[in-house]
């Protein structure tokens, strides 16, 4: 199907996006130590922190220690313990390397004195070089085409979500263990390249476990699922407030661990981000 490269504006929901941006505003406690606040959900119950939120906080802390024009190009993280949303997260950054072309940081996220997530992030100065990229799957309808076909926009975690998401029907999966979604924030974000990378990191943890379940023919049976480790590569700058096709495919399932590999393309076909994640998936027998 021919893709329409027209970029439509997101629906305005300023309050939800402002709440999300405040989530990424870290408090600097010391030179390389930060505090992230985790507001509880509206139902009044304690929940485990969303893994993408912890990873986004860790990358945000790392970016706040970069004083040169180096931009995130990759991150690799391990989820060590479940985080909880009724306590702040302390983020401790180590300045591993400051080079002319590359900068490296490690970040440990802690709650109650215990590590819940560890991250290594690398930053690169823009430089010219050869170009190649994978192509956008033009068989996948655009958001406008899906809406015209009656596919609804879903709110991620309810109507207060800062994200607009359209789940692409499974008939477009090409018979592969795959999950496709169009996603963007519900209003514009500041023109801050590092901030957009953090929001893309948040998004990158959406739906991977679902792709792993789909490979087992159990997409609707959630069972127990948890991210184990997670990698993101930022190939080209993309805005998180414009439509991105997040395409994730399961490539292996063994020992209750599934590997999902995916990428994000902008609506005009730019391959912006690649991801890989291994998840623990225990399904009811």
User: Strand portion, in percent?
Assistant: 35-45%
Q: Mind telling me which CATH architecture this is? A: Beta Barrel
- The number of domains is 1
Instruction: Give the beta-strand count.
Output: 13
Order of helices and strands: HEEHEEEEHEEEHHEEEE
Radius of gyration over all CA atoms, rounded: 18 Å
CATH C-level name: Mainly Beta
Q: Looking at the structure, what is the overall shape? A: globular
Mean pLDDT over all positions: 90
Name the CATH superfamily classification.
Acyl-CoA thioesterase, double hotdog domain
Main sheet: strands, sense, barrel: 13 strands, antiparallel
Straight-line N-to-C gap: 39 Å
The structural class is: alpha+beta
CATH fold group: Porin
Strand adjacency order, main sheet:
1-2-4-5-6-3-10-13-12-11-9-8-7
**With helices defined by DSSP (H or I, 4 residues minimum), what is the helix count?**
5
Poorly predicted spans = 1-7
Helix percentage range: 10-25%
Summary of the model, kept short:
The protein is an alpha+beta fold and 285 residues long. The chain is 17% helix and 38% strand. It starts with 13 loop residues before the first helix and ends with a strand.
Topology, please?
Layout: H1 14-23, E1 27-30, E2 33-36, H2 51-63, E3 70-79, E4 89-98, E5 102-111, E6 114-125, H3 143-148, E7 154-155, E8 163-167, E9 178-185, H4 193-203, H5 208-215, E10 224-234, E11 244-254, E12 257-266, E13 271-282
Antiparallel strand pairs: 1-2, 2-4, 3-6, 3-10, 4-5, 5-6, 7-8, 8-9, 9-11, 10-13, 11-12, 12-13
Helix pairs in contact: 2-4
């Amino acid at each position: 199907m021919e893709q329409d490269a027209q970029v439509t504006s997101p629906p305005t929901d300023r309050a939800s996006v402002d709440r999300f941006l405040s989530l990424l505003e870290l408090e600097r406690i010391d030179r390389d130590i930060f505090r992230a606040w985790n507001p509880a959900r509206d139902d009044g119950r304690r929940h485990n922190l969303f893994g993408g939120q912890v990873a986004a906080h860790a990358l945000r802390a790392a970016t706040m220690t970069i004083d040169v024009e180096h931009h995130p190009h990759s991150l690799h993280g391990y989820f060590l313990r479940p985080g909880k949303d009724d306590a702040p997260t302390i983020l401790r950054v180590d300045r591993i390397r400051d080079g002319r072309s590359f900068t490296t940081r490690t970040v440990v996220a802690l709650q109650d004195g215990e590590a819940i997530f560890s991250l290594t992030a690398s930053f690169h100065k823009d430089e010219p070089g050869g170009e190649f990229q994978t192509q956008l799957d033009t068989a996948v309808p655009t958001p406008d085409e899906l809406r015209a076909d009656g596919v609804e926009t879903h709110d991620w975690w309810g109507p207060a979500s800062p994200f607009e998401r359209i789940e692409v029907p499974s008939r477009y999966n090409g018979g592969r263990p795959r999950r496709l979604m169009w996603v963007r924030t519900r209003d514009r974000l500041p023109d801050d390249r590092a901030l957009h990378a953090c929001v893309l990191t948040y998004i990158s943890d959406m739906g991977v476990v679902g792709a792993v379940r789909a490979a087992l023919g159990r997409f609707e049976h959630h069972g127990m699922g948890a991210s184990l480790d997670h990698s993101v590569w930022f190939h080209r700058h993309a805005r998180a407030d414009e439509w991105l096709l997040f395409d994730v495919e399961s490539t292996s399932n063994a020992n209750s661990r599934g590997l999902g590999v995916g990428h994000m393309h902008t609506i005009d076909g730019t391959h912006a981000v690649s991801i890989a994640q291994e998840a623990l998936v225990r399904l009811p027998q």
